[in-house]
Specification:
single chain; 3-stranded mixed sheet; 3-stranded antiparallel sheet; 2 helices; 6 strands; elongated; zinc ion binding; nickel cation binding; metal-binding; Hydgase_Ni_incorp_HypA/HybF_CS
């Protein structure tokens, strides 16, 4: 379960940011996770609660924005969101699309203080 190591890294980064900002508590952590990032959101939430114990994030809410897979279709010459991230074919023309624009993100976007 690599989500636990990801959760520990999030807690470490956020704790350092809190210390740098001079705040003692973080109330929310905002993440963006792409559909291809290989992270299970529920497992990350569970792991985050464990990793945050005894830290400035102990009571923080983990808010996750799930990012769909967006690819560039050279045939249509446009970016398209894939309805099924396992099929890399344009939903409009049916041609294969290999250039991933979005969907691999794993980003700490923002921290919120009380």
């Amino acid at each position: 379960m690599h989500e636990l190591s990801i959760a520990h890294n999030i807690v470490n980064i956020a704790s350092a940011a809190a210390a740098e900002a001079g705040t003692e508590e973080i109330s929310a952590v905002y993440l963006r996770i792409g559909a291809l990032a290989g992270v299970v959101a529920d497992a990350l939430r569970f792991s985050f609660a464990i990793a945050a114990e005894g830290t400035p994030l102990a009571n923080a809410e983990l808010i996750i924005e799930e990012v769909p897979v967006t690819v560039f279709c050279p045939t249509c010459n446009t970016e398209v969101t894939l309805p099924n991230p396992r099929l890399f074919r344009c939903p409009h023309c049916g041609r294969p699309c290999g250039q991933i624009i979005h969907g691999r993100e794993l980003e700490l976007v923002a921290l919120e203080t009380p």
